[in-house]
Each structure stands twice: as structure tokens, then as C-alpha cells.
Amino acid sequence: MPADLSESGADPAAPDEILFPNVRIVLVETTHPGNIGAAARAMKNMGLTRLVLVNPRLFPHEKAVWRSASAADVVHGAEVVESLDQALEDCQLVIGTSARDRRIPWPMLEPRACGEQVFRAQQARNQVAVVFGREAHGLKNEELQKCHFHVNIPTGRAYSSLNLGMAVQVLSYEILQAHLAAEAQHLGDKAAGSAADQPWDIDFATAEANEHFFTHLETTLLEVGFHDPENPRQLLTRLRRMFNRIRMDKMELNIMRGFLTAINRLAKK
Amino acid sequence: MPADLSESGADPAAPDEILFPNVRIVLVETTHPGNIGAAARAMKNMGLTRLVLVNPRLFPHEKAVWRSASAADVVHGAEVVESLDQALEDCQLVIGTSARDRRIPWPMLEPRACGEQVFRAQQARNQVAVVFGREAHGLKNEELQKCHFHVNIPTGRAYSSLNLGMAVQVLSYEILQAHLAAEAQHLGDKAAGSAADQPWDIDFATAEANEHFFTHLETTLLEVGFHDPENPRQLLTRLRRMFNRIRMDKMELNIMRGFLTAINRLAKK
Question: Residue A48 — left, alpha, or beta (φ > 0 → left; ψ -120 to 50 → alpha)?
Fold first, then answer.
């Protein structure tokens, strides 16, 4: 009996929809081809498709294809260029990944704000690049200075060096999150329910039905001698809180009512 | 001349601080040892240290250690158990990763809400498990039904299957984000500035200094004949917007004033 199941999932009719045609991921002088493949998979998982490689050490390479799994199209479609300037030529927003370094203060973004900036720039049809440096040394100062913003992925203190593919994953995830948040907002404007609502198969119980349930529960507790109205010990309050916390659906409530009725019958025997 | 540089970075005195002692990442029947290593690195990068492996196919294995890079301690410290029940025994909050599947509706969390739930449970000193399934098939229904919540990482439509290590990365990232957000809130309560403020080495210019600059800019534009007050074409408005967007610091403003003064001197010759 599916009811207010708010549909926010995939549209199988558009499996190859390109969400971010103007956003490129730029990898500078990547050493390990496996990381290129991992980055490609992370990108495609998050709806990104355009990969630009600046002087990769080993490319093309079978390891890049293997690690990309079903994102081999992103690997094969990667543009290879000889300089970061070539990679950025037509870009209107350039964001470079950076360790938090106080020697060259630069407008810094958190990953979430980075995702939002990239999304807004894509919406405005700007060309956008998110640039990742070498596995061991990151981006050089002169490369970082080509960027409008720097982005730093916060880490724990014990180990701050993220794998390159993982860094691409986190920032790509935040770009898609910004897109989905805007989409949910849009849906929320159009309909009563938000796309962030949990899908559920049964209507939730109404407040009225819940009150009937709580009354029924109380009488049943009295009936079975468990609840002493002279010495309540917050029993009903705690039960209310517990049942309200799970937000019962109609079927669950009916089951509980049936259970209580069965107890009542037993008590009257 | 460092001034209002709000300190929010690492504390080198506490490199091995354990942020989430009560949170365990549980990997069920992982096939590739490389994924165990990647997960360990992702965890340690985000301040997580406790890894539990349910029936890993190949473990211990050198590939797990190699892929973990500097998180070999997490790999070596992993607990290996024979059943998910063993892994979850003392857990008070269990969250399982799941594809969005309408056949078994379950309380679903977005990754961000998952991070917040895990963080709050850690704060309350609850034992928490975040459970990841097999590379090819995920978690089985009976495993998912041991969870309080399911979490789904949203993807683009073209390719929805995340690599296991990447999934661990995204959820671990959101757990640390929840911790950092709470920390920033705490710092924000204590001091005027928030920890999310951009670090900068020089004080920002005051509004008064900016106004003097804009006046100086206008007179200079007139002086050099670039600005025609009879036909302004929004020139000053556009310049204001640009410089305000830059949010000049005091040193930058002094440099600009010096530049204008030099132009004035030239014009007066």
C-alpha cells in the first residue's frame, strides 16, 4: 500500500545525463596511473566526466583503466596537456587543493563551500577547474597562485595526507551534494514534501490516531496492573517519548492497537 | 604583522589524539585486501582508528598494508571476527551502508546526518558501528536489519557503485566534519571570530579606509581622464563591487593608495 512515497531516486531514462559539463578535474603530474583510475571512478560516481591530465608520468596505462572500473570512458576521454596553463586556459573559476599553509595566505574554502562555488559557477555556465597536485608534493606555489581559491580537506591530526583519489572523491562528493541540495530546494518549492524526506511504504499515523493509541495503552497498563496512577514514576511520559521517537506508521500503530486489544480481552476473561 | 589570525589548525603537541575511540568501522567479507588498506588510510586521515573485519577473504595481506600507507597501525590493529553479530556485540548505534532500496524501507540517513548521528553518539559515549558490505553485493537483508539506520551515499545516475574504500572515505569525512563543526561552534561561543574564518596574515582594511580609497580612486580616474562624470557608465559602481569583493587587507589598500598617489604625482607634472 505505497502512499506518500516521495520519489527522489534515479531516473532510469537518463542514465548518461551529464550534470557538470563545464567542470573539469585537473591532475598535475600524477605519478601512479592507479590514482588516475581511482579519480576517474570517483568523478563518474559523482556525476563528473571531464578529466584533464597535466604531464602524467605513466599514461595511458592499463592500471588506470583497471582501477576506474566502469569509468573507463572517463579515463579514455581524459585530455593530456603539457602545462597547467593549457589545462586552465578557458577557465573562469580555478580552485586548487592545498595543505593549510600560512606562508601564502589565500582565500581558503572548506570542501562544502568549494562544492557550492563549483555548483554555482556551473549554473552560471562558467568554465571551472578543480586542480589536484602531485601525490608526494601537491601543487607548487606558482601553481597555487593561478587559483582563485584554495581548498583544504580537513583531517585528523595523526595523519593528514590524503590519497589523491580520495581527495578527488571528497571534493566531487561535495560538488554533487551542492547540486542535490539545490535540486531538493527546487522540489521543496514545488511540492509540500522535500526530497530529503525519507521514503516509506506506509503512511505515517496521524496525531489523532497516536492519541487514541496512547489512551488505549494507558488503560491497558492500568488494566494489567502495571501502571499505578498513584505512583506513576514518569512511566507514561517515557512511553510517549519512546513511541514518538520512532514516528509510527499506520500499519505499526494498527499492530500495536491489535496487540493491546488482545491484552484487554485477556484481562476481561 | 600577523593580527586577527584565528588559529584553527593542527596542534603538533597532540599528533596521536584519538578523536573517536567508540566508533568502529566494520567491513563485512571484504574480497580485496587493497580495499582494507584504502579504508584504513581513509579512516586514519579522518581521525578514526578502530577497524573490525568480518570474515575477510584475504587477511592479513601485504596489499592491505601497502595501500594503507601510513595507516599500517590501523591495519595491524584490526580485529578479525567470524560474524557480524560478534562485530556489533556491544554497539549501541549501528548504521549500515545500503543502496536506496524501496523493498525494505528503513530509517535512511544522508551521509551528513550519518556523520552527525555518529558524532553525537560518540559524545554520549555510546559504542557505534558503521557497517560496509561486500564489494560486489553490499550487505544482505538480514545484516541490514541489524542496523538502527541505513545510510546511502548519493551518486550521479550514470554510475552508482562506489569503491569500498571511497565509501569509507566519504562517511569518515562526514564524521570528522560533524566533529569539526561542533568544535567551531564551541570556539565561536568562546571568541568573537569563528574557526571557519579564513586565516589571513594582515588585518582587513576598515570601511573608513576603503571609502578614502574609493574617493582617491575616483579623483584619480577623473584626473587621468578615464572617468567622465557626464557619462559614468556604471564605472564606479563596478569598481566598488570588484574591490569590495576582494575585501582588501590594510597592506593591499596601502599599496593601492601608493599606486594612486604615484599616478597623481605623474598627472600633476
Answer: beta
**Which of A46, A47, A156 has the CB atom closest to B46's CB atom?**
A156
Count of Cβ atoms closer than 10 Å to residue A2 Cβ: 11
Mean pLDDT per block of 10 residues along chain A (269 residues) reads: 33 61 97 98 97 98 97 98 92 86 71 95 90 95 84 93 97 97 76 45 73 87 76 72 70 80 76
- Of A9, A100, A162, Cβ closest to residue B9: A100
pLDDT of residue A267: 72
Tell me how far apart the alpha carbons of residues A9 and B101 are, in angstroms, rounded to a whole number.
10
For B45, the closest of A19, A69, A155 (CB atoms) is A155
Cα A128 from Cα A112, distance rounded (Å): 16
Please report where in the chains the cell 562526514 appears, as a residue: B174
User: How many Cα atoms within 13 Å fall on the side-chain side of residue A24?
Assistant: 27
B108–A10 C-beta distance less than 8 A = no
The alpha carbon of residue A205 is apart from the nearest alpha carbon of chain B, in Å, by 16
Nearest CA distance, B202 vs chain A (angstrom): 9
Grid cell, residue A3, equals 502512499
Q: Which residues of A touch B49 (CB under 8 A)?
A: 158
How far A111 CA sits from the closest chain B CA (Å)?
10
Residues 6+ apart with CB under 8 A from B14: A157
**pLDDT confidence of B76, banded at 50, 70, 90?**
very high
- Comparing CB atoms, the residue among A45, A111, A112 nearest residue B162 is A45
- Angle at alpha carbon of residue A19, lines to A17 and A24, rounded to 5°: 125
CA distance linking residue A168 with residue A41, whole number of Å? 10
Those residues whose C-beta lies under 8 Å from the C-beta of residue B135, and which sit 6 or more positions away, are B30, B31, B32, B35, B163, B164
Separation between Cα atoms, residue B53 and residue B35, nearest integer Å: 12
Between CA B23 and CA B129 the distance in angstroms is 6
Pairwise CB contact (< 8 Å): A157 & B71: no
The β-bridge partners of B47 are none
Report the residue of chain A nearest B14, measured CA to CA: A157
Alpha carbons B250 and B257: distance in angstroms, whole number: 10
DSSP secondary structure code for residue B233 in this structure:
T
Residue of A nearest to B247 (CA): A107
- Does residue B249 come out as left (phi exceeding 0), alpha (psi in the -120 to 50 range) or beta? beta
ipTM of the complex: 0.73
| Domains, in order of start, for chain A | 23-190 (3.40.1280.10), 207-268 (1.10.8.590)
Q: How far is A160 from chain B (nearest CA, A)?
A: 5
HSE-up (13 A, CA, CB side) for residue B76: 6
